């Protein structure tokens, strides 16, 4: 049964997200222009369900001190270099919402895909007086020294976009993000639809060591087994969530597995790398080889509109409104669910052109 406090949280974060539509504006990578219309881009929280289970975390249980964000120092730890549209949009959203709310001081760091740097970044922000930490973890494991440093100072930690293998309401307050297993399932459903349920599929895996890769793989593989045994997975290789690596891996797969008819890329950047590789090999992406990926970047949705792609499952990076609304409720004494799960849209050939303004 949903508690009144949890219902109020969901309503509040949805309203906050809807009221901060401009927070998701982001600079695009490559040839894509900056997206200035985010009227379709705000995050929406799912109604509490099993995904938002648990007794919830309160200020008293966590042992933190009540603060007003307008008088606070807030730290945001980004995990990866901002050469990826997801990271660009995510950081921009946090900065924009902090400015909108009048947060006294926002500290931002970037770990450049180095776990040791993310640990030191978080410790440095604590040393500078951070009273709230919003963390996009690089990996699901390994941040224990940083979490312990925050706990020692009773500083709340809210994680976004990747889960930690840690204890909620002890090591961190809550996780805000997508249901990654469900994303994988939806990608599989899209793949089944565009292939007719038959063919040979290559999976471009994300980076190892985090739940996003594990869950997106599980959701996709399990769904194919259950619904389309005629779609055979013939290769699984990591592209590390990077476009150049995705292209490199796809070039190798074209040589070693020339009969591949479909690609599932666990983010858009790898999918776009696969497009380049297929073109270089004289193949027609979207036709000779079907491509489904996850993220919802402007460049991938444009490729879909242009017929060089076949489907995109969104993973919305605009966490600013939700993160700060969650923090405000937490400091106000509300109980915060362990997992605050957002809804993600899907792009296909029928809606890609009209949906470009909502992509990032």
Folded structure, characterized:
The chain is of the alpha/beta class and 360 residues long. The protein is built from twelve helices and 13 strands. It has helices at 4-19, 59-62, 85-101, 115-127, 144-152, 180-195, 211-227, 243-256, 268-280, 298-305, 320-331, 352-355; strands spanning 44-45, 73-78, 105-110, 132-135, 157-160, 174-177, 199-205, 231-238, 262-265, 290-295, 311-314, 339-343, 346-347. The strands form two sheets. The protein has a seven-stranded mixed sheet, with helices on both faces. Strands 8-7-9-10-11-13 form a six-stranded mixed sheet, with helices on both faces. Strand 9, helix 9 and strand 10 (290-295) form a beta-alpha-beta unit. Helix 4 packs parallel to helix 5. The two termini are 36 Å apart. The model is unreliable at 1-39 and 49-53 (pLDDT under 50).
Number of strands: 13
Largest sheet entry: 7 strands, mixed
Structural class: alpha/beta
SSE order: HEHEHEHEHEEHEHEHEHEHEHEEH
Describe what is shown at a glance.
The chain is of the alpha/beta class and 360 residues long. Helix content is 40%, strand content 17%.
Features:
alpha/beta, 6-stranded mixed beta sheet, about 350 residues, disordered N terminus
């Amino acid at each position: 049964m949903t508690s009144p406090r949890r219902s109020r949280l969901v309503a509040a974060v949805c309203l906050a997200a809807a009221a901060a539509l401009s927070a998701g504006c982001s600079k695009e990578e490559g040839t894509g222009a900056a997206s200035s219309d985010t009227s379709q881009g705000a995050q929406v929280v799912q109604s509490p369900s099993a995904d938002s289970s648990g007794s919830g975390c309160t200020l008293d249980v966590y042992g933190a001190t009540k603060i007003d964000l307008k008088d606070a120092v807030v730290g945001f730890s980004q995990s990866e270099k901002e050469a990826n549209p997801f990271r660009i949009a995510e950081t921009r959203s946090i900065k924009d919402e902090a400015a909108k709310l009048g947060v006294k001081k926002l500290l931002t760091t970037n770990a450049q895909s180095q776990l040791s740097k993310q640990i030191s970044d978080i410790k440095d922000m604590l040393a500078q007086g951070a009273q709230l930490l919003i963390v996009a973890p690089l990996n699901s494991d390994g941040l224990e020294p940083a979490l312990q440093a925050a706990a020692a100072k009773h500083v709340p930690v809210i994680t976004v976009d990747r889960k930690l293998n840690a204890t909620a309401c002890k090591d961190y307050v809550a996780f805000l993000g997508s249901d990654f297993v469900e994303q994988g399932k939806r990608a599989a459903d899209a793949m089944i639809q565009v292939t007719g349920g038959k063919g040979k599929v290559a999976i471009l895996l994300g980076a190892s060591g985090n739940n996003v890769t594990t869950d997106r793989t599980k959701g996709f593989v399990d769904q194919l087994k259950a619904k389309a045994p005629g779609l055979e997975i013939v290769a699984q290789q990591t592209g590390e969530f990077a476009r150049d690596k995705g292209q490199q891996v796809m070039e190798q797969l074209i040589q070693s597995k020339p009969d591949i008819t479909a690609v599932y890329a666990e983010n858009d950047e790898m999918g776009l790398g696969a497009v380049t590789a297929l073109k270089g090999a004289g193949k027609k992406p979207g036709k000779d080889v079907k491509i489904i990926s996850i993220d919802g970047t402007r460049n991938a949705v444009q490729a879909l509109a242009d017929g060089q792609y076949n489907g995109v499952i969104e993973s919305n990076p605009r966490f600013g409104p939700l993160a700060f609304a969650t923090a405000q409720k937490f400091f106000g004494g509300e109980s915060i669910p362990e997992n605050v799960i957002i809804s993600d849209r899907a792009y296909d050939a029928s809606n890609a052109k009209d949906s470009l303004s909502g992509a990032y």
